Amino acid sequence: MGEPRDSGTGRTGSDDDGVAVARDRVENTTARGDERKALILDTALRLFERDGYEKTTMRAIAKEAGVSVGNAYYYFASKDHLIQAFYDEVSDRHVEQALAAMRPHRGLAPRLSADLHAWIDVAEPYREFAAQFVKNAVDPNSPLSPFSPESKPTRDKVIDVHRRAVLGSTAKIDREIAESLPELLWMHHMAIVLFWVYDRSADARRTRELIDRTTPIVARVIGLSRFKMVRPLFREGEKLIRDFLLPDEQ
User: Fold this and answer.
1) Quick check: 76 and 57 in contact, CB under 8 A?
2) Segments of the chain scoring below 70 in pLDDT
3) Which of 10, 101, 170, 182 is such that its CA lies 20 to 30 A from the CA of 157?
4) CA-to-CA distance for 168 and 106, rounded, in angstroms?
5) CA distance linking residue 113 with residue 126, whole number of Å
6) 60 closest CA partner among 69, 73, 71
7) Are residues 233 and 111 in the same domain?
8) Same domain for 20 and 32?
9) Cα separation, 96 vs 94, whole angstroms
10) Distance (Å, rounded) from C-alpha 166 to C-alpha 223?
11) How far is residue 146's CA from residue 219's CA, in Å, rounded to a whole number?
12) 228 in a domain, yes or no?
C-alpha cells in the first residue's frame, strides 16, 4: 500500500516529516551557535576586564569559555573582532533604547537629549572598556577606530538614530541642511563619549549634566539653519567631516 500523499503538492507524508526535521535541525543549530557566540563574547569581556585587553589571548578566552580554540576563531577571527562585536551590540541596544526614549518628545532638544542619555544608559555598565575605546580611537591603523572603514556599519546605525531625532522633531530646518545634520550630530556624540571616558562621577552624573546643558544649545544653533546666511556654515561643517575625518566614505 502506497504512502499517503499531500493532495496539494504530491509529496509523501514522510517527505514532509523530513523537511520538518531538517528545518528544526537548522533552527536548533543556529540557536546553539548564537548561544556559543554570546558565551565567547561574554567570556572575552570578563577576561578583558580582569586581565586587560593586551594580556588576554584567544586561547585563554576559549579555555575559560569551555570551547576549542578553533571554535573561538570560527566565530571571531581575532580579539579585534570580539571588540567590534561588542561595539555592535552596544550600538544595537542604543538604537532600540534611543528610539523608545525619543518617541514621547517632539522638540529637537529633548529628542537629542534622550538619544544621548540612552547611549550612556547602555554604555555605563561597560565603563572598564572606556580606556580601550580611546586607544582604538587614536590609533589611525586600528579597524576599531570609530572613524575607520571597518566601523562604518556601526557608525551608520548611530548616525541614523541622529537622523531620526531630527526628522521626527517639530524643528523647522532647511531640507538640505537636515540631510547633513546627522553627521554633525555624530561629532557632538563623539565629544560626549570622550568626556564620558574621563568622567569619574557616579553613574556618569557629569556626562549626563553635559548632555542636558549642550543639547539645548545644539538645538538652538540648528534652528538658525532657517536663515540663508547661516546655511553655508552647516554645509562647510559637513564637508570638513567628510574630507578629513571620514575620507573613505567619499
Assistant:
1) no
2) 1-29, 133, 247-250
3) 170
4) 7
5) 21
6) 69
7) yes
8) yes
9) 5
10) 11
11) 24
12) yes
Whether residue 89 is found in the same domain as residue 209: yes
Amino acid at 132: Q
| Domains contained in the chain, number | 2
Q: Are residues 133 and 104 in the same domain?
A: yes
Would you tell me how many other CB atoms lie within 10 Å of the CB of residue 89?
16
- Give the DSSP letter string of 184-246: HHHHHHHHHHHHHHH--SGGGHHHHHHHHHHHHHHHHHHHGGGSTTTHHHHHHHHHHIIIIIS
What does the pLDDT read at residue 180?
82
Is the residue at 7 inside a domain?
no
98 vs 166: CA distance, rounded Å: 13
169 within a domain of the structure (yes/no): yes
Comparing C-alpha atoms, which of 166, 169, 197 is closest to residue 182? 166
Look up cell 499531500; give the residue: 6
In contact, 206 and 199? CB cutoff 8 Å: yes
Q: What is residue 10's predicted lDDT score, i.e. its pLDDT?
A: 47
Instruction: Name the β-bridge partners of 12.
Output: 5
Q: Using one digit for the tens of pLDDT, what is the confidence trace for 221-230?
A: 998 888 888 8
Task: Kindly report the CATH number assigned to the domain that includes residue 175.
Answer: 1.10.357.10
Predicted confidence at residue 249, as pLDDT, reads 63
Cα distance between residue 144 and residue 129, in whole Å? 13
For residues 20 and 110, membership in a common domain is answered with: no
Any idea what the CATH number is for the domain that residue 37 is in?
1.10.10.60
d(CA 29, CA 203): 39
* Residue 150 domain boundaries: 79-249
**H or E element: which one contains 4?**
none
Q: What is the DSSP string of 136-147?
A: HHH-TT-TTSTT
